Amino acid sequence: MKKIWGGDVVRVGASAWAASGLPPVRPPGEVVAGSLSQTKRGAALAEIAAHDTSRLQDSEVAGGLESLAAAAGMLMRTRLRLACESAGRGLHTESGFGLVDWLVARSPDVDPSVVRDLSKLATGSREPVHAPVLDGVLSGSMSVARGACVLRSLQRIRAGVPTDLYAGAVEALAAVGCDPATDDAGVGRAVGELLRRCLPEKVHDDANKYRRALRDVHESNLADGSVKRLIMTFGDDADYEAVRAVLTSPLAAPASREEVDATGEEDRRTPGQRRYDALMTVISRGVAGSRGQPTTPKAMLAVTVDLEVLSHKLSEKAGLPGCGETMDGASVAADSIRRLACEADIIPMVLGGDGEILDQGVRRRLVTPGQRVNLARRDRCCTIPGCTVPATWCEAHHVIWWSRGGRSDLSNYALLCPRHHTWVHDRDLTATVTGRGVIWHLR
Q1: Is pLDDT above 90 for 330?
Q2: What angle separates helix 58-89 from helix 112-124, to the nearest 10 degrees?
Q3: CA-angle at 74, arms to 69 and 76, nearest 5°
Q4: Does residue 237 surpass a pLDDT of 50?
Q5: Which residues contact 342 (CB under 8 A, 6 or more apart)?
Q6: What letter would DSSP give residue 176?
Q7: Distance CA 278, CA 282 (A)
Q8: Angle, nearest 10°, between helix axes 144-157 and 184-198?
Q9: DSSP assignment of 352-386, as one string?
Q10: Whose CA, among 18, 30, 263, 385, lies 20 to 30 Å from 376?
C-alpha cells in the first residue's frame, strides 16, 4: 500500500494505516478535498456554537483555544505542502503571476506577510539542500515564520561560502530553529553570528555605505507649531547602536524602590519621558564642557570584534568575520568600529600623576577631566541612597554651590544623576563629603 503525501511516495502497511485512524485508502486528492470539506463544516458548526460562549464551562473555553491552535498548525502545514507543490509545478506561471501574488489570491484569510513566508519556503523546497529547514517546519518543530527567516538569512550568505559549508549552515540553523528551548531571540542571535562569520567584510561595508547615504534629520512639527518633532534616519549601524545605548542606559531607568524610600517621591515619568531625559542629558553634557569640550566620556558602546579585523581589511580572507557584535547581539560593520576606535581613548588610571591639578579653587567652575576620574573612583555612582545610575552618566554637583562661593575641589563635589541633580537643587539639600564618599542630609 502506498501513501502519497507532498509529492513523496511512502509505503505504508495496511495494519499501520488502520491503526492511524485515517479513512480507508482513497486517491490523495479525494482525501485532501474531502477532509478539508469536513474541516470546513466542523469549523462552521463550532463558530455557530461559539456564539453562546457564556454557556461554556471553563475547561471547554481553554480546551477550545488549545484545539484551535492545534488545528490551525495542521492547516498551516497543509497549506505549506500545497504551496510547495504549486511552486514545483509552476502553477503560478500559467497565469503570469509571481508565486507570492498567486498564493495571496488563494489565501485571503491570512496576512500577506504570512503568504510571503510561505512563498519563501515553497521556493526553497525546490532545492534538496534546504530539506532540514522544510522538515523542521512540516514536523511542527519550527513555525513558518521562523523557517522563512532562516532561509532568508541563508540566502544572504550563499554566494560567499562553498557548497559544503552552506549545507552545514543549513543544518546548523535548522537545528537551532527546531530546538524547543530556543526562542526567537535565540534564533536571531544564531542568524546574526552566522552572517558575521560568513559574509565577507566588503558585503558589510557596501551595505553600510548605501545606508549612510540615507542618513537624515528633519523637522516634523504640527501645523500650529505647538508640538515640535525631529525625525532621524540612521545611516550607520554604529550611530544607531550608540543612540540606542543611551536610550536603554541607566539614565532612562525608573527610580529604584530604595531610591523612592530615601527621597519619599515616586518617579512618575513615562518610559518615553525617561528616554527623552536620557538623550537630552547626553546632548547637554556634550556642550557643557570648558572650551566646548565635554568633561565626561561619551556614551559607551561595547562592541566585540577580532583584533585582526580591527587592525586590517580582511575582505579577501575567508573564515574571519566582517563586522563586530554589540552586547545586544546587533551587528556593526568593521569599518564603523575602526572609525569609533580612532575617537576612543585608552587611558591608564593614574591618580594625581604628572602634576594633574585636582584642587583648583574657584578659578574655574567646571570639573576637570582629572577630577572626573577621581570622582568616579570615589563615588562609583549617583550619591543619593538607592540610586544606581553609574558615574559615567552622572554630573559633578557643587555641594556648596559655586555661585555661593563653593570651591571646585574634590572635597566639594558629589556625583548626581541628572534627575537627582535637579531634585537636590530644588530642595537646597546639603551633604557631608568625606574621603570615602558623600553623606546627604535628607529631610
Answers
A1: no
A2: 50
A3: 90
A4: yes
A5: none
A6: H
A7: 7
A8: 10
A9: T-TT--S--TTS--SPPHHHHHHHHHHH-B-SSTT
A10: 263
